[in-house]
Amino acid sequence: MxxxxxxxxxxxxxxxxxxxxxxxxxGPHSPEGHLTTNQGIRVSDNQNxxxxxxxxxxxxxDFVLREKIFHFDHExxxxxxxxxxxxxxxxxxxxxxxxxxxxxxxxxxxxGERVPVFVRFSTVAGGAGSVDTPRDVRGFAVKFYTQQxxxxxxxxxxPVFFIQDAIKFPDLVHAVKMEADRGYPQAASAHDTFWDFxxxxxxxxxxxMWAMSDRTIPRSLRTIExxxxxxxxFVNDEGVSTFVKFHWKxxxxxxxxxxxxxxxxxxxxxxxxxxxxxxAIAAGDFPEWELGIQxxxxxxxxxxxxxxxxxxxxxxxELVPVRLVGRMVLDRNVDNFFAETEQVAYCPANIVPGIDxxxxxxxxxxxxxxxxxxxxxxxxxxxxQLPINAPKCPFQNFQRDGQMQMLVPKGRANYEPNSxxxxxxxxxxxxxxxxxxxxxxxxxxxxxxxxxxxxxPELFADHYSQARLFYRSLTANEQAHVAAAFTxxxxxVGLEHIPQRMLGNLRNVDEDLAxxxxxxxxxxxxxxxxxAREPIDLDPSPALSIQKNMKPTLxxxxxxxxxxxxxxxxxxxxxxxxVEKAGATPMLIAPxxxxxxxxxxxxxxxxxxxxxxxxxxxxxxAVVLSAEGTAMLLKEAAAVQFCMDAFGHLKAxxxxxxxxPLLDKAGVEPDEGVVALNGNxxxxxxxxxxxxxxxxxxxxxxxx
Length: 704
Ligand code: HDE
Known about the structure:
Layout: H1 7-13, H2 63-73, E1 86-95, E2 115-123, E3 138-146, E4 149-156, H3 169-176, H4 192-200, H5 205-211, E5 226-227, E6 232-235, E7 241-250, H6 259-268, H7 272-282, E8 288-296, H8 298-303, E9 323-333, H9 337-342, E10 355-356, H10 361-378, H11 465-472, H12 476-491, H13 497-509, H14 511-521, E11 558-562, H15 569-581, E12 585-590, E13 596-597, E14 603-604, E15 608-609, E16 620-623, H16 627-633, H17 637-648, E17 653-655, H18 660-665, E18 674-676, H19 683-689, H20 697-700
Parallel strand pairs: 11-12, 11-16, 12-15, 16-17, 17-18
Antiparallel strand pairs: 1-2, 1-9, 2-3, 3-4, 5-7, 6-7, 6-10, 7-8, 8-9, 13-14
């Protein structure tokens, strides 16, 4: 009779029923390995539901089936309203030096002492099932499990934000998410409602410059910076406050894709970023960032032509250098995506003594939102007890009960004050004015206290100076990318008055940029929109450019090596070894995943099949083909596209002499990045593969 059971198991044990008598001591059929219901009852059959007769109806009495389906029906929880798609990892933070002069926060006192962290990276606009590589801001949320409680630094990979006041956040998010009637586009800002809102709210302009730059199409999560965005406070033992802005600097340097590559990655691998992070950690190639701080006092803040409480402004690094105070290493993947990555609950209100908020009106709104959203997402006020959210130091108070209470508090003391200790009963915890968290007092003279007003500080009205500063800090190639991104996004807007309004705003940023976007759209340049406050010229900040700060290294990157039957075994082995020596991962790509027969007769297995491993998934390519292999692949569109895209995405291309006809067919023109592989050390190829060839771009695409 067909019962769907595991045949090998049956052979071993004679028949299914016999297992009850002869339980092995170890393995899946040992007592510990037994499958049970949630009530602990052992399950005898996980393949068949209980029926009345072999062909009869399923019985309601089948509690094993009912419990299993019931639980499955409720496996999903509401996804995050923003930042729904994310990936996370465990690691540690260690300070380089004591910061006791400026903060009493315990985690910054003892150099080298590690604090566990859990970091979640995310996109913002798309749903949990969207893709990893849209043009979007990346969330960079860090939970530090310190000995004084949890500190959450819930930041982004961009140092400013779209809006200045939390009251506009629901409007912003409604506008950027898929349009309310049609339910699209997913994970894209290139549509009417986003640009309608953005163009009506000039305060978004600085962030728009960043969003349209290569910052929002990162190559890897390992190559993004992170920012706390708001101005925070450090407070030392004497209660003296210093303003602080937080930065994360990636060890591998900044690196982005080009737009066509990001688009094609959406087709090649929806999970490109999470796979990259997971694989790097699994391989022991641990991603690392340094924590940087910019600190300054009130007097300095008062001297600036912008307001440090305004989250649409940066303080250029050239003005206040970023001091590197520690490093963070991610060295452990999650065991379970749901239990950890999905259930983690970050909250900017989670701070520890020694750190405090500023009055940034965006931050102030966030302090309410995150706790509130966790209740609807995780369903109970006890979500802090989930292992991923619970502090690693003791925590105790008189909060009680509620859904999913996991703790079993003892005794009668569930209120305070109480005098139960006087009669020998447990009295429970007490407040501590000395070591407990105390808030920094605001100062009336800085407008931090006063009349109740729905107003913004005066300097918040300057919406364009820093947008201009950003644009003018980029390389010419990066500026062209910004113009191209505005052109692409606005070309997707159906209502014509919206791009016109946006162009009118851009004229306040930079006339040349506005003209380029207008030309790119094939639209007339409208009149400049009046600015609430006339922009001023600020000194450019080279630190804002990705290209000016890229690290020429192959470390942590991937090189795709294309080969086929007849490829030279020695050349292949040498390229592979050179790539490994440079700290990168070679990815062997052949027409068939089973491999190809090399010149010496050996069969070389592939890591990826050509049709499923396009060159956008790697950082550089080596085409190691014989004349015979080249002749065969000239008829394979995937091979031609492989080379064409590597060239178009400004990547290094190493090749054997015999592979030249394939490169010719793909339109690969000779330049610095196209290197002959002669099998002797491949030094020139490795050097080329460690960077990208932005000078090549005018040959492959017309940028506005
Ligand atoms: Fe968030 N944001 N946000 N945000 N945010 C959320 O909290 C919110 C803002 C950021 O990996 C939500 O748990 C408001 C700035 C990250 O789980 C929600 C405002 C910055 C994450 C929320 C902002 C961020 C979130 C949704 C304007 C950079 C993902 C789910 C006042 C400094 C954390 C959740 C993770 C998530 C509210 C603006 C970063 C709804 C009201 C600025 C990295 O509470």
